[in-house]
Amino acid sequence: MTSIVSRHLFGPGPTNAYPEATEGLARPLLGHLDPAFLAIMDETCEWLRAVWGTAQNRTLPLSATGSAGMEAAFVNTVHPGDVVVVAVNGLFGQRMCEVASRCGAEVVAVQHRWGSPVDPERVVAAHPAPAIVAAVHAETSTGARSDIAALGAAVRDAGDALLLVDAVTSIAGIELLADEWGIDIGYAGTQKCLGVAPGLAPFTISERAFGRRVERPRSWYLDLGLLGGYVGDAGPGPRARTYHHTAPVAMVSSLHAALGRILEEGLDNVWARHAAAGQALQDGLEAMGLELFADAGHRLPELTTVRVPDGVDSADVRRTLLERYDIEIGAGVGEFAASVWRIGLMGPNASPDAVALVLHALGDVLGRPTSG
Ligand SMILES: *Cc1c(COP(=O)(O)O)cnc(C)c1O
């Protein structure tokens, strides 16, 4: 048997889980149609509405990781030939283009410099009447935060396109107000700021978007019309639960426990905790003489990108952090693979202790000791 290894997961995800989430995983398994489990599922959906900032009935955890949320978003809403405008400012925007195009969309990609936020004016100017406008709220590949409130307002002013948003790394980390911002279709993931293992994709869709959905999407597993029969999100009326697929009951219990813990702390407090940790980390890295990568004023607190100093081997440093401190940080993505590090402080890791530990460890490995 291999030995149990425990790490500080300070990369782009998965993060370490909240203790409550780990306890949730260990609860006795229940049948997925057991009334006791359905009560947990219902409360999970209710609490997901709270972290999404939405009153949408159709808010549920999809049984797969964040990328399945992306697939579900496009496969359920793109009709062949639909124009889909995608704001691309990093890897996940690029991936949206690929997924949308496989669903038959005519994709209009609006390219942005990596590290910069999405520019709403350029995005809405890209096409006169798209069916969908899509963007990533928190680009985990670059550490840039985009203003979805402004994008939503611009999209509404320009026409009646649906707004589709990736909130994988923003949910339960930074402010997210789906209804106020006009998000029609949103997907997220559990292993970033929600502080749960990877495996579920919190999803939400407005009535307006659901009304325009593809009736018989190419994906049977991710067909929102069929899924609604199980999670009982179809609104008023008898809540008959029909079997579609076996819900991952342990993962739902874990998410339920984490959401309970997050809402008990209070969303405002959770956002403030992430903001404080990110700011302290970014200040500390700059004090060490390092240069941050994402544009000032648009930096995510939960995912910090920092340039690898000249003459330093990025992979060597990451390996030493792992071996000496049990700390995992992320490499950069694409052309920045070797020139940027990504340091995540998400969920339980958004704490002063984690900030102090990662600054100390990085200072030690780089030979730039911190004063603190
Ligand atoms: C992690 C991530 C995803 C993909 O989620 P998986 O759980 O890896 O499938 C999508 N979008 C963003 C912004 C992410 O950070």
Walk me through the structure.
One of its GO terms (molecular function) is transaminase activity. It is a single chain. The chain has two domains: 8-15 and 266-366, Aspartate Aminotransferase, domain 1, CATH 3.90.1150.10; 20-264, Type I PLP-dependent aspartate aminotransferase-like (Major domain) (Aspartate Aminotransferase, domain 2, 3-Layer(aba) Sandwich). Helices cover 39% and strands 15% of the residues. It is built from 13 helices and 14 strands. The chain has helices at residues 19-25, 35-52, 66-75, 91-102, 120-125, 148-158, 178-181, 207-211, 224-231, 249-265, 267-287, 314-325, 352-366; strands spanning 8-9, 59-62, 83-88, 106-111, 132-136, 138-139, 144-145, 162-166, 185-187, 201-205, 303-307, 327-328, 330-331, 340-344. Helix 7 (178-181) links the parallel strand 8 and strand 9. Residues 13, 65-67, 92, 136, 140, 166, 168-169, 189, 198 line the site of pyridoxal-5'-phosphate.
User: Into which percentage range does the β-strand content fall?
Assistant: 5-15%
Run of helices and strands? EHHEHEHEHEEEHEHEEHHHHEHEEEH
State the end-to-end distance: 40 Å
CATH topology of the largest domain: Aspartate Aminotransferase, domain 2
Report the CATH C-level class of the largest domain.
Alpha Beta
| Secondary-structure class | alpha/beta
The CATH architecture of the largest domain comes to 3-Layer(aba) Sandwich
Q: What does the main sheet amount to? A: 7 strands, mixed
What small ligands are held by the chains?
A: pyridoxal-5'-phosphate
Widest β-sheet, arrangement of strands: 2-10-9-8-5-3-4
Number of domains: 2
Shape: globular
Low-confidence stretches: 234-238
What is the CATH superfamily classification of the largest domain?
Type I PLP-dependent aspartate aminotransferase-like (Major domain)
Mean pLDDT: 95
> In DSSP terms, counting alpha (H) and pi (I) runs of 4 or more, how many helices?
13
Task: Work out the helicity level.
Answer: 25-40%
Rg, Cα atoms, Å = 21 Å
Overall number of strands: 14
